[in-house]
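Lab notebook, bench 4. The sequencing result for the construct came back, and we need a structural model before the next group meeting so we can plan mutations. Quick request posted to the team channel:

Model the 3D structure of this chain.
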Amino acid sequence: MKRILPLLTIVISMFMLFSCGAKEVVNDTPEPVVETTSVVEKAPVVEEVIAVKETVVEEAVVEEIIPEEVIEPVEESIWVKYMIQPNDYLTKIALQEYGVVTMWRTIWDWNLDVIGDNPDLIYPFEELSLQKEAYEAQEVSYEYVDYTVEEGETLWCIAEKLYGNSYAWIIIVRDNLDILGDDYNAITAGTVFKIRTQL
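Done. Here's the predicted structure in token form:
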């Protein structure tokens, strides 16, 4: 019986294999319907062309003459003077004038002849040259008054008296170089200096 059962399975399998392959294939898809339409021939249309006489009107050409504008080149940056104030230092000036602390090195490079080798040692009332955008730069102008030197006065005491800071004597010298010459220690009574109204 053990041998008949596998043989019986083989025979049934063969029967099913051959009987399924003998079936007829049925096509379930419908055949396409072909519609016939009648063709109507179109008669040629004859268009009449009416000749229209064209008249050409010449237009007067008017040229507008526009004067050329003289455009002067705008300077991108200019040099301005900055007066060192008491308690100023280069990083403070850089932050105040440019908004960036690291510009102090550039300011030092621009003013090496005024500042010298030590950027930490700057003096009040010295003037530095700063490069600014042309639209940001403001023209600085000073008003002057005459001051007559009294007996025993020095530039130091005149600066203290007029500006409230004796270190401002350098401004008096700068403004009066033509009067003082090379010797600004030997000022005499009655000498008339021009003095700035404001620093």
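DSSP finds seven helices and four strands in the chain.
Will bring this to the meeting.
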